[in-house]
């Protein structure tokens, strides 16, 4: 296959995955909310069936304009180009469509090409892409809702451990220790902060995400991930307060910074630890 065709196909696949990630990011938190409502109803009324509601999942209902209910046609749903053809507006009511949708699709396409450039066309590329796509979905969901759903973090954790079994990259023992250490490190920080201030500084989803990163990267990379995510998170938080007037009391989601740091460590961990961050190398 010609290189140009291969990379064009890779970008197309990435854009299509990005379109699906838009659905996941939008619908999964709502699906969790509906599930929690059913659980609460079951606890309060154990002898009653939960109230009936229309099916709502990643496939049903079909995508529609939130303003007028217009069903999105297949050609309007083509990644990036559909939004451009519509000029960022609903074809029925002309309500604006957020530019975030094509940005996520384009970003996923770019990340897909980047990962394949790094890994080559091997089985490892599939695992690397699943890792990357899941981190992107988690980062966006946490940014929107301050939630890191178990539906994504736990499969990511288990997949990281399973991928380590053939010892194609991270040794299985390093992955297991990394998963345990990743969880315990942030859990300890959480407990210490709560003991000192009486407040919760982060959520349990952050513990699980770092555990998943430890499984994929090995325990040796955890100091790099923590330093990168904390540094970028602190700078971004200060910038949002000073430049955007963000409320200091409003919690800042840590998941996007963990996800970004984990991705960087996955692709360029050795290079980063060979430079100014070599003081944080372990093993």
Task: Please provide a written account of the structure.
- By secondary structure, the chain is mostly helical.
- It is globular and about 55 Å long.
- The chain has helices at 3-44, 81-85, 100-119, 123-145, 150-164, 172-197, 204-217, 222-244, 255-274.
- Helices cover 66% and strands 0% of the residues.
- The longest helix has 42 residues, at 3-44.
- The model has no long low-confidence stretch (mean pLDDT 89).
- It has nine helices and no strands.
- Helix 7 packs parallel to helix 9.
What's the short version?
The chain has nine helices and no strands.
Low-confidence segments: none
Q: Please tell me how large the radius of gyration is.
A: 21 Å
Note the total helix count. Answer: 9
Mean of all residue-level pLDDT scores:
89
Query: What coarse outline follows from CA principal-axis ratios?
Result: globular
> Sheet bearing the most strands, described?
none
Helix content bin? 55-70%
- Strand residue percentage: under 5%
What are the secondary-structure elements, in order, as H or E?
HHHHHHHHH
Topology, number of strands: 0
Query: Which structural class best describes the helix and strand composition?
Result: mainly alpha
Distance between the termini: 41 Å
């Amino acid at each position: 296959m010609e290189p140009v065709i291969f990379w064009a196909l890779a970008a197309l696949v990435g854009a299509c995955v990005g379109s699906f990630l838009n659905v996941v990011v939008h619908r999964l938190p709502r699906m969790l909310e509906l599930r929690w409502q059913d659980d609460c109803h079951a606890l309060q009324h154990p002898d009653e069936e939960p109230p009936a509601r229309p099916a709502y999942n990643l496939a049903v209902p079909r995508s529609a304009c939130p303003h007028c209910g217009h069903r999105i046609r297949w050609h309007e749903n083509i990644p990036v180009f559909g939004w451009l053809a519509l000029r960022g507006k609903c074809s029925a009511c002309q309500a604006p469509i957020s530019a975030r949708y094509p940005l996520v699709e384009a970003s996923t396409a770019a990340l897909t090409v980047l990962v394949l450039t790094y890994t080559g066309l091997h089985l490892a590329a599939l695992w690397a892409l699943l890792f990357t796509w899941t981190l992107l979905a988690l980062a966006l969901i946490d940014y929107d809702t301050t939630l890191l759903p178990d539906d994504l973090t736990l499969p990511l954790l288990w997949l990281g451990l399973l991928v380590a079994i053939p010892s194609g990259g991270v040794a299985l023992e390093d992955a297991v220790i990394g998963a345990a250490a990743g969880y315990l490190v942030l859990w300890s920080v959480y407990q210490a902060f709560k003991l000192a201030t009486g407040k919760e500084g982060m959520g349990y989803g952050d513990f699980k995400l770092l555990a998943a990163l430890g499984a994929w990267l090995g325990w040796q990379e955890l100091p790099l991930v923590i330093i990168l995510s904390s540094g970028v998170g602190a700078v971004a938080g200060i910038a949002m307060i000073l430049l955007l007037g963000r409320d200091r009391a409003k919690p800042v989601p840590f998941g996007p910074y963990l996800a970004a740091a984990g991705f960087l460590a996955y692709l360029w961990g050795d290079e980063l630890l060979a430079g100014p961050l070599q003081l944080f190398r372990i093993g």
